[in-house]
Amino acid sequence: METKDWRLEQERLERVRNKLQARIVELEPEVAGLRDQATDIRKRFWEEVTINTSTHEDFEESFYTINQQSAVLAERERGHKLLTQQWKSMNRLLPSPYFGRIDFQEDGLDLSEQIYIGVSSFVDEDGLSFLIYDWRTPIASLYYDYSPGLASYVTPAGRIEGTMELKRQFQIQNGQIRNMFDASETIGDELLQQVLGKGADSQMKSIVATIQKEQNAIIRNDKSRMLIVQGAAGSGKTSAALQRVAYLLYKHRQTIRADQIVLFSPNPMFTSYISTVLPELGEENMQQTTFQEYLDYWLGSSLRPEDAFDQIEFVLTAQGTPGYEARLQGIEYKASETFLQALQNYGMWLGREGMRFNGIRVRERDLITAERMRVKFYGYDHSLPLFNRVVLLQEWLLNELASLERMERNAPWVQEELDYLDTEQYAEVFGMLHKERELFDLAELYATVREKMSNKRREDEGDFDFAGREEDLLRRSIVKESFKPLRKSVKKFSFVDVKAIFGQLFVDEAAYRQRTNGAAVPAQWSEICRQTKEKLLRNELFHEDATPYLYVKELIEGVRTNTEIRYVFVDEGQDYSPFQYEYLKKLFPRARMTVLGDFGQAIFMQATSLEAADSPLVRLFGEAETSLVRLVRSYRSTREIVEFTKSMLPGGEEITPFERGGQKPLLTRLDGGEKRDAQILADIAALRAEGFDSIAVITKTAAESREAYESLQIHGGEALQLITKETPGFEKGAMVIPVYLAKGVEFDAVLVYDASPEAYGRANERKLLYTACTRAMHRLHLYTTGDWSPFVQALPVNVYEKAPY
Ligand SMILES: Nc1ncnc2c1ncn2[C@@H]1O[C@H](COP(=O)(O)OP(=O)(O)OP(=O)(O)O)[C@@H](O)[C@H]1O
């Protein structure tokens, strides 16, 4: 780069920074002043306004004053928020106002415009000249999509064509240009090299300065209802998803708030890992949750649903135990579309017969039997959907309860209770009586006046019968108390025995077929039935049963929906079943969906292929409403690590590493666990000495993690942290972690604790090993104390080194 260019850019940078600084200083008193004013009005708001209701006019006046005050307050707060936002974004810009520049000459204009791009816009005093363009503006997309030459971008008014004459990247720190590159081919190879060469962090970083063209297409896609991203490990899916959230919040800032976007993450730890990206970009975080949280919320009070981690732990550790194969078959089947179809058919069957109800009992006595409910239910018009009939039944039950409650007042048990009432209950009734007495007196007065006016004698002469009324009220309140929980549970649909309805699917094969219109079943169906029922009996649910159970519940009670949410993001999308997708679609009927995942990392049994021609995900909204984007460039790991990992995956040939070199993965075989542990600790120490801060010893299961952790501790590894599914967030340092919790995150160095055939030998363990190895950014070590896993043995010998000991 010519020194003259450098000098000119530094001078411009200083000019812009001075303007930023001046504007910040200018805004400061306004921001501070407004804050004071707003709090001031708030403070005095209630003091000054007293509600005077003595006359109608006074009341109206007070009401008007309140309204006026709150309108002033709202206006001030709006203005304040806007100015504060400006002030904040300028402060954010100040140390590093922009990261890119393009010179663009629009066709038909003589002038080439210089466009500087940063994390938000900054306009000169004239209110027209953009000194910095927000990266999300239409013109800024040129920076991500083109190299110098012919280029175009889309605005709401149409496409603008022209020529990009220059594309420049900056690294600016504390107001100084540290680096400057003119890009010719793809953007930011130099800058990207530098960014990717850095160490892993305990928090994910924003990639705004180096977004790649294929990622930009994901970020700005605003066409389809469903956007599916199938991307190799480390291809920037999560990064792109977060930038997309920031983009949507900017583009639709008038209509969408951050809390109308929800992201489903694989686990709570991941939630904390990505939580700083949006604030770094000056945006509020979207809502984040996990599917498990949702299941627990809706099922937790009645049944204990197992979580996905316990399920996978079982799958990986219980081989050879009785019933294991059947459980596996069950997991696969219950996640399938066949089962979903079977349940839909089951819903139809329930419309004709087979509904199960819980009778309503009071004091060991049947009030309304399950049989009566059944007869009533099947008496309704059969063409009505199941849940409409359930609602009709609910209304009927509430009415029935009301009349039964009236009759119940004369039951002998009420008399008994009457004799044992405590003083508190008497006092309550006494209070009620007095209120009644007032009413009674008023009614008496009214009757007397009428009598006088109409000159007619009234037939009945009123007298307030205290004793009679007292007993009546007491009876009423006793019965009411005992009916209250009944009414409440009817409102919550407890009269439908969902557990029995779900359970009766698992009686035997013949019954299942009959009830689901001939659905096919896996070979070990009777064992699957036995296991499912046994779990239900203990008020527990297998993880694979949780979503189907909710599905059946909603067939009966009606669908739950959230119409506020406009965008749903699902990260690690390969780990959700077709069932769960159906569910999300119904839950968020007004939302567009973005699903990001990698079938190469599908380690759970209920995996869904994101891109196969017959993928249930494409069917969810139909092909016309779905866009599919594939990412094959991997940015996380060095070229050597990517060459190693991609050879492990069938079909992995197309994965291309970003050109960043390092050492080949190292295979270390040692005879005996003790030696292995000692070597691992020595390697961790050496890696630390090289400056690698985040190091993960990755195991296959949680059980193995614990063993490894304890064993490494005995050999002196006190500074290690053990990560379990309960760990709330990551800290930098060395840790032991099971692979399924390391999903989505990355480390400077990964040490695969045991890469033997025993650990990674079965077909479904290939992807586990792949997922573990692809967490590494700079270094990858694998260890064994015996043979190597067949997936390692099958690798070309030139993709790794072997340790000389
Ligand atoms: N355009 C980019 N510029 C800079 N860094 C990038 C870019 N794209 C991806 N990265 C980096 O690559 C790493 C992997 O990104 P990310 O975690 O988003 O990938 P992923 O596809 O979600 O990975 P996985 O499926 O393995 O979890 C991160 O460190 C991210 O910062």
TrEMBL record:
An annotated GO BP: recombinational repair
GO CC field: cytosol
Record-listed ATP binding positions: G231, A232, A233, G234, S235, G236, K237, T238
Residues annotated as signal peptide: none
Hydrolase as UniProt keyword: yes
Taxonomy, superkingdom: Bacteria
PROSITE patterns documented for this protein: UVRD_HELICASE_ATP_BIND
GO molecular function annotation: 3'-5' DNA helicase activity; ATP binding; DNA binding; hydrolase activity
One Pfam family it belongs to: UvrD_C_2
Sorted UniProt keywords: ATP-binding, Helicase, Hydrolase, Nucleotide-binding
Sequence ranges assigned to domain UvrD-like helicase ATP-binding in this UniProt record: 210-638
PANTHER family (UniProt xref): DNA HELICASE IV, UVRD / RECB / PCRA DNA HELICASE FAMILY MEMBER
Protein name: Helicase
Lineage: Bacteria, Bacillati, Bacillota, Bacilli, Bacillales
